[in-house]
Amino acid sequence: MFVYVSNRPSLDLLGTLKWRRDVPEEQLHVPGDLSTWSAGSSLGIEVTAGPAELDQVRQAREALYRVVSAVRAGQAPVAPDVALLNRLAAGPGPRLQLRADGTVSRTSSVEQLLGALVRDALDLLAGPDLARVKDCSNARCTRLYVDVSRASSRRWCGMAECGNVAKVAAFRARQRS
Fold first, then answer.
1. Is 118 helix (H, G, I), strand (E, B) or coil?
2. For position 140, what pLDDT does the model report?
3. C-alpha torsion 93→102→100→114, nearest 10
4. What is the pLDDT of residues 11-28, one digit of tens each?
5. Is 133 in contact with 145 (CB distance < 8 Å)?
6. d(C-alpha 13, C-alpha 34), whole Å
7. CATH superfamily label, 9-176
8. Pfam families, alphabetically (predicted)?
């Protein structure tokens, strides 16, 4: 269900609302979706959320999307978004615990998860990778990703959802002509 193609967990969170420009498709429908997304992300954090906390995640996600978009466009983000993200970034991070078998568990509250995600985004905004953040070439897609390809030539957020669709459409167009 979830794809993690952005090369940054904060950008992967932004991708949980797809197709923002036309018919937005929410992927975080119920609190369990957040748990699934978080555990599968590169953070690998186990989190339990309720409906109010899921709403908090969605609000933070949208503030984060607006801030990243503004900064990329050379504009100042709006003050309420800045205040929310700064508050979340100042909080504690996830709890790491060494298990008896030598593996590590990562658990957190929703607030701690958001803190880790916002800190990742702020690190992105302050660092050299910001210049490598791209929009997917699919006109409908609103996912952002860090292009880590050697030639900086990546065009799609991911081949499964956008790249293959575009390539199949181009192939069919060539076949018709």
1. helix
2. 87
3. 20
4. 999 999 999 989 999 999
5. yes
6. 10
7. Jann2411-like domain (1.10.3300.10)
8. ABATE, zf-CGNR
> 24: phi > 0 → left, psi -120 to 50 → alpha, else beta; which?
beta
Rounded Cα–Cα distance for residues 9 and 164 (Å): 23
pTM, rounded to two decimals = 0.90
User: 36: exposed, middle or buried (C-beta count within 10 Å: 0-12, 13-18, 19+)?
Assistant: middle
Q: With the CA atoms of 72, 74, 76 and 82 taken in that order, what torsion angle do they form, in degrees rounded to the nearest 10?
A: 20
Taking only the tens place, the pLDDT of each residue in 149-160 is 999 999 988 877
Residue spans per domain, the chain: 9-176
H or E segment and range at residue 133: strand 133-135
